[in-house]
Design brief:
Length: 297
């Protein structure tokens, strides 16, 4: 049912995008569908937390992924233990084309700070526009719609639409991005969100809230690279101090990893386990996924 809803919403946006330039903005997701999306997101989050308890997962049947236009990686079929994203781009999908404004539809779980940042970057990583919003922290997620006006000098240019949340210490809790194209004239054409509603990363172990000891954390998980840049694992303390490990990731296909991160603390500390990948043009993260774990001396 959830997939049917997303497909209908994506097709609606596509049909509107194909209309003449004077046509109204892409159709939003029908209001009657929003409670269903929220309920499905909550159920998926609960199922995911249960699945992450077991580090070694049994072989499970695959589920057919929604159609998408990946950038730049190949399409993969999400497994049942891959969680829905903390920041879900319901629309636009990858490489959607917009005449101003960009219409953004999100299902988002904010961090403890309840601060959400939306930013639009143009070609060569140039910042175009952005703003912050405050969203109550609900584990079932909050549905939001934003319009981002823009002006460009060229006829068209590639862009990155980025949304991030922070915890109460100001550390990035979650960050997700989608590539789009900006047009100075023409018609808006949107693509389906596809499998970008899922997280690119999952930790098999440790689970959220686990306690590590002995000065080393064993980390096992799965990551779907956004690009060919290094993938970085970090344990970030409340004061921002990181303990870092660079993952050995080859190619752009989803792949599993297993490594250790050494650390040093003098008392029981709640740290943020983070996996991120950088973007060479932005010189900043293009994707971040995190969870809390306890570190004991």
């Amino acid at each position: 049912m959830f997939r049917k809803i997303l497909i209908l919403a994506s097709l609606s946006g596509f049909l509107v995008g194909c209309a003449p330039a004077s046509a109204p903005a892409p159709t939003l997701l029908p209001e009657a569908y929003i409670p269903t999306i929220i309920a499905m997101t909550g159920e998926a989050a609960q199922a995911t937390s249960q699945a992450l308890i077991t580090p070694t997962l049994p072989a499970l049947p695959t589920r057919t992924a929604l159609p998408s236009t990946p950038y730049p990686t190949a399409t993969f079929t999400p497994q049942p233990h891959i969680p829905l994203a903390q920041i879900q781009f319901l629309a636009p999908g990858p490489m959607s084309r917009f005449v101003s404004p960009v219409l953004l539809q999100l299902m988002i779980i904010s961090g403890e700070s309840e601060v959400v940042q939306i930013r639009l970057f143009g070609e060569d990583g140039v910042y175009i526009d952005g703003f912050t919003d405050r969203i109550p922290r609900l584990l079932s997620g909050v549905y939001k719609v934003y319009k981002i006006p823009f002006t460009i000098r060229a006829a068209a240019e590639t862009a990155i639409l980025q949304v991030s949340t922070k915890d109460k210490e100001g550390r990035i809790r979650s960050l997700n991005s989608v590539p789009i194209t900006l047009l100075s004239a023409g018609t808006t054409q949107t693509t389906p969100a596809g499998n970008i509603i899922y997280e690119r990363a999952v930790f098999y172990t440790p689970a959220s809230g686990d306690k590590a000891s002995g000065g080393e954390v064993v980390v096992k998980g799965r990551f779907w690279p956004f690009n060919t840049q290094p993938v970085i694992l970090e344990l970030i303390l409340p004061d921002g101090k990181p303990f870092t490990r660079v993952l050995d990731i080859n190619g752009l296909d989803p792949q599993e990893f297993s490594t250790t991160i050494p650390y040093k603390v003098s008392e029981l500390t709640l740290a943020r386990l983070s996996v991120r990948q950088m973007d060479p043009l932005l010189n900043a993260p293009i994707y971040v996924y995190t969870q809390d774990i306890w570190l004991s001396p």
